[in-house]
Amino acid sequence: GNFLECGKKGNLFHKEILSDYIASLLSFVDVKAMKPFHIVVNAGNGCANIAFSELKKHLPFHFTELYMDPDGSFPHGVPNPMLEECRKPLVDAVLSEKADLGIAWDGDFDRCFFIDEKGHFVEGYYMVGLLAEYFLKRHKGETIVHDPRVFWCTEKICHELGGKPVESKGGHAFMKETMRRVKGIYGAENSAHHFFRDFSYCDSGMIPWLIVAEIMSEKGKHLGELVEEMEEEFPCSGEINLTVKNSDFILEQVKEKYGKGASRVDLIDGVGIEYDNWRFNLRPSNTEPLIRFNMETKGDRKLLEEKKKEVMDFIHSLE
Q: Which tens digits make up the pLDDT trace of 176-232?
């Protein structure tokens, strides 16, 4: 405590930031245009309720709330809605309550996940398409940033609405860098990270579901109806994690086998192999001994299942 006296002392002031944060979230939508939906929300005992408890005061919705109290012991399981078992309480509640929509957040609520009115999990891929369409219809000619996993649907929407699709390596640091470089109005990873130019190019787990509620209100349709056409036109595998010992070796072998007859080989993030009517991406995890597999086709679910099994069987044969 033996400090020198400073010639010029600073000032202490207090700032209430939560109200400004809530105002920022609400600036993305027209609350007055929203219909009084019944929405089930699940924070998984993560941190989402710190913001949600204030945000809901400004919204016309009726909420059924699950596991909203932050609890680091996670008594109801890890808050990772990518896992099917973590989504079950939300699915059950949507069905039993006959709700219009279900929303789940991960622990730090920078991602949100959607259950439609029929209790079906909506892949992040189609949420990217839905939000890209939303922004391009309001802001002509803007740039949309997407990751390399699956993107044919996003590209099609951009081309039809006069937008510019830009591919970025996955990961929040790379997405933000690309977003700033190309001044993208909206960007997303299929893992449910959604980035917004007017949110300092950062990702948010609150803005996407507010926009979805506005789209549902505007179009008079539930989420399942909004993504139905995309799901049929571009069926995808969802992200499949494969445990491996040597990801570099496997990626090289996959590139060697499938790259020869491909129309495009993309190395921006892992290995992306593209043919006329099907494509896949294989990328290593940065933190685990895993490679992440994603595949899509052009309207052919049978081909999706056949090629998914073929590629995964080849990967397993290398172990």
A: 999 999 999 999 999 999 999 999 999 999 999 999 999 999 999 999 999 999 999
Q: Do domains 124-233 and 240-317 have the same CATH topology?
A: no
- CA 70 vs CA 16, 52, 63, 315: distances in Å: 21, 12, 18, 40
Range 64-86 burial, b when 16+ CB lie within 10 A, else e? bbbbbebeeeeeeeebbbbeeeb
How open is the CA angle 97-99-100, to the nearest 5 degrees? 175
Domain boundaries along the sequence of the chain: 17-122, 124-233, 240-317
Its pTM stands at 0.93
Of the CA atoms within 13 Å of residue 242, those in its CB half-sphere come to: 26
Assigned CATH for 240-317? 3.30.310.50
> How confident is the model over 21-76, as pLDDT tens digits?
999 999 999 999 999 999 999 999 999 999 999 999 999 999 999 999 999 999 99
Decide yes or no: CATH 3.30.365.10 for domain 17-122.
no
How far CA 134 is from CA of 142, 212, 215, 267, in Å, comes to 11, 9, 8, 30
Q: Architecture of domain 124-233 in CATH?
A: 3-Layer(aba) Sandwich (3.40)
**At 166, which helix (H) or strand (E)?**
strand 164-167
The identity of residue 21, as a single letter, is: Y
